[in-house]
From TrEMBL:
Protein name according to UniProt: Anthranilate phosphoribosyltransferase
Enzyme Commission number(s): 2.4.2.18
Keyword Transferase: yes
Keywords: Amino-acid biosynthesis, Aromatic amino acid biosynthesis, Glycosyltransferase, Transferase, Tryptophan biosynthesis
Domain spans labelled Glycosyl transferase family: 160-431
Basic and acidic residues: bias regions: 452-482
Pathway involvement of the protein, from the record: Amino-acid biosynthesis; L-tryptophan biosynthesis; L-tryptophan from chorismate: step 2/5
Domain of life of the native organism: Eukaryota
Amino acid sequence: MSGGKSSDQTATASTSSSPPHTLDTFRPLLKSLILSIPIPGIPSTSSSSSAPPGLDEASLRHLFDHLSDPEFTSNHAHHAQLGSTLSGMRLGGLDVRPETLLVASQTFLAKCIAVESQDEVCSLTTKGEAQRRLQQEAGWVTSDVSEADLLARLTAYNGTLDLVGTGGDGQDTFNVSTTAAMVASGVPGVRSCKHGAKASSSTSGSADLLLSLGIPLLSLTPATLSPLVATCSFVFLFAQLFHPSLAPLGPIRRALGHPTIFNVLGPLINPARPRRCILGVHSAYLGNIFAEALRKRGCERAWVVCGKEGLDEISIEGETDVWELDGNDIRHITISPQDFGLQSYPLTQVASYTSDENAAIVLRLLGARDYPDSTDPPSLASSVPSAANLEAIEAYTILQASALLYVGGHANSYTEASRLARQSMKSGAALRSLREFRAKAKEAVMQREKEIAAAGEEEKRRREREEQDARASVAHDRKTGDDGFFYAPAPSRSVGVGTEDA
C-alpha cells in the first residue's frame, strides 16, 4: 500500500470515512464490474468492445464497503444487485485475485469484533510457564537438544498460530485441523487461536466438534471469549459471533447456489490476526494466490497447502504442494508424511464421522482414558466407531500439528516438530489445553449469567425503590392535606355581588 500506511490502517480509514451506502452509490460499481467481465468469443482488444478496465483499488474498496454494511445488505430491495455482484465477481474471476482477497479481508476484519491477542503482555508469562514445564515435565528435553536451546525456539514467537482450510474439497475427512491445533497448543510456549464455524458441506465442522466436546460456544459472547486468547494456550473463535456483517449475506449466498468469494474468505479473517499460520486450499491454482494475499496482508510466515488429491489439508496419503511464505519471499515445495517420519495412509482411513463420534475419537487420541476427567461428556468414551482407524487418524493429526509447529518457528526440523507433537499428545498436554479452554469458557458463561442475574436483581430493586418512593410520595401528599395548613382567600364582604337568585 502507498502513502506509508499499513494495510489495516488503510482499511480502517476507508470504512470509517465512507458515506451512507445506497443503490445510487452501488449501481456504478456493479456496472463497472459487469461490463468488465470478458465475453466468450470476443477478444478483449476488439474495437467493438467498449468495456471499461474494471474496478480499480479505490472502487474495489468502495464495493466491499457496501458488502460489509449490514444496513445495506439486510435491505431486501438490494438483494438482486448484491447477488449480481457476487455472481459477477465469480464469472470475471475477480473473487480469486490476491488484491481482491486482500481488500475483502481488510474490510471485513475492520468490521469484525476485534480480539486483542496481547502478544507482548503474554510474552513473559508464556516464557516463564514454558521454562517451568520443560523443567518439571519429562519428555520435552532430550539428549539431542538442550533445555536452553529448546526454550529459545519455543518462545521466540510470542503470537498466536492458526491452522485453517477453505473447505470445499469434497473429501469430508476427520476434523484434523481443530484437533491438531489442540495438539500444537499442548507444547510449552505455543498458543493456537482457531477460527471456524459449523459445517456447511461436510459431516462435522470445527464448531460442531467443539460443541460435542462440551465447549459452550452458543452461550459465549465476543466479550467473554476475547480475554481467553491471552490466558489459554488453545482458543476457538466462533466465526458467527465475531462477524455480524456477514450474516445478512447468508441468504443471498444460499439462493445463488454457486460458490462465491465468501466460500474462501474465512481463513483470511481470523479476528485474532495471527502472524503465522497454515492455510489449506481445495485447489492448487489457489495456492500462490492465497500466499500472495497473505504476503500483502503482512503475514510473517505461512504455509498454503493443497494435497495432491485436492485436499485442503496436508495429505496423509501422498504428496502435498506447499507455497511457503517467509517474510516477502514465496517458494513452492512438495512434502510427504515420510518427511515427518510418519507412515502414509489412504484418505479413506481418515474419513469424518458425526461430530459426537469425532469428539470421542479426539478424547481417545488425546488420552482421555489415561487422564479421566469428570467434565468429559460420559457418553463419548464408548462411542468411538468400530471402523475408525485410530492409528491413521493419529498420524494425520500429528502431521498437521508438526507442520504448524514448524511454521511457527517452534522446531528446527520436520522430525523435531513431529516429536514435539507426539509428546504433546501422549503426555496429556494437548488434553489439558482442551480442558483448560473448556473450563474457562464455562466459567466465563457462568460469570456472565451471574452478571445478568445481578443486573436483573438490581433492576428489580430499582423498580421496587421507585414504587416505594411513589407510595411514600402519595402518603405524604395525603398527610399534608389532612394535617397541614390549608391556605384559601378570605371570604369577601361583597361575595354575593353579581349573583342572581332564582
